Amino acid sequence: MRTEAHSAGLHGFVAAGLRLVRTTAFRLALLYLAMFVLSVGLILGVVYRTTAGFLEQEIGETIALEVAGLQDHYRNYGLPGLVDVVRTRSAVANNNSIYLLTTAAGVILAGNLSGWPAAVPNASGWTHFKVADYGGVNDRPSTAQAVTFTLPGQFRLLVGRDMSEIDQLRTRMFRSLGWILGATALLGLGGGLLMSRGAMRRIEAINRTTRQIMSGDLTDRVPRFGGGDEMDRLAGNLNAMLDRIERLMTGMKQVTDSVAHDLRTPLTRLRSRIELALLHETEDPEVYRSVLQDTIVEADRLLATFTALLSIAEAESGAKRQDFVPVDLAEVVELAADLYEPVADERGQRLSVDIRGKPVVHGNGQLLAQVVSNLLDNAIKYTPDGGNITLVLDGPAPGRAACIEVADSGPGIPPDMRDKVLQRFVRLDTARASPGNGLGLSLVDAVATLHGAKLELSDNEPGLKVSLLFPPEARR
């Protein structure tokens, strides 16, 4: 049993490790690690070239100068003088210099090497060989770098330096380079794992939230870690999207319930009216005419309700945004005012229109005209006979591109109900006696959201003031 549990735990650990390796964060960490290791390697290479490489260059220049001096001494004093100089220099204690002077047959005349090295010199005469096999300096295993050349008379001369210290430096530097690169790789890999683990934990939180939402819980939200980074911004955007989806789903449910409730009464009246006309047989055509006319009026009300619902749905979907064109708001306001001024005059109301400029915004002219018409229709409907209605169009100002304002002297809307009246089929108790379906302000709110505008309802003292504020980016 314990073996099975151990095997399951090991399998889970391996699976988690594989998921970690497949993450984008881990792959990016590996990429950054490779770039970092390459950078460290280049830096250490430069350090090596500026230390060991510089020392090797200095030794080479020193050997070249010494060779030139020995050649001059040979020309001036001949072979005996050269032998004396080589013997003298070879006898110096703790000397890193290496000398060897031989005949053409290989007989040693002077020097501190036991024999001519077997290494083959390059084209310039330089050679690198091990001197320990020949009883090198201080009898310690070491290598040497030397230059060889042939003197007049077929005598051969070798001048070099013991390279053991530089070899040790080079070995230590390569060993340090290996340790540094290994530590860098381990630290980078560990950091990549930590980064990937943190990213996976946050992404898993998002996945867990999406699974909850897919299971039907629309109230769950993506947790935010409070760092203000891109993951927190992503969580904020996802939560805003989820809030929007929840509102739409709630609104859809509310619309379904409201449609079922509010349309049942007119459909029942419609059916009852037709049924009564069929039950009471009469030869008077006016009776049937009257029933048909009432039926048409009722059907028009139903069609108006469905048309408003379709307009709201279309505005909320954003489909009309692709049809946006520059719209002259002055023309929209003037057209709506000309349309509703006779209606206001008929009720003895005074409709005042004040157009302060000709702002142009990017939008849908038909929907904007319907918004102004809905606001004027509501104002005329709820303003008592003899009341005042004002329609104002204001131009650009700080923080806005334009403002459309409709105010009336009616009963107004209480502050605690101003958000609710924007919902579908919501009507105040005082407005239920007047014709309407409770969709006018809902359409206004949907069109405002489509255009990125802000809809404000405030007190006109007395009456209601509705303001539609277009953002600066809507200006064209």
UniProtKB/TrEMBL annotation:
Keyword Transferase: yes
CDD domains given in the database record: HAMP, HATPase, HisKA
Main location group: membrane
Keywords annotated in UniProt: Kinase, Membrane, Phosphoprotein, Transferase, Transmembrane, Transmembrane helix, Two-component regulatory system
Superkingdom in the source lineage: Bacteria
Transmembrane parts of this sequence: 29-48, 98-119, 177-195
InterPro entries assigned: HAMP_dom, HATPase_C_sf, HATPase_dom, His_kinase_dom, HisK_dim/P_dom, HisK_dim/P_sf, Sig_transdc_His_kin-like_C, TCS_sensor_his_kinase
Location(s), subcellular: Membrane
Keyword Repeat: no
EC number: 2.7.13.3
Signal peptide: none
Domain HAMP intervals: 197-250
Protein name listed in UniProt: histidine kinase
Organism: Azospirillum melinis
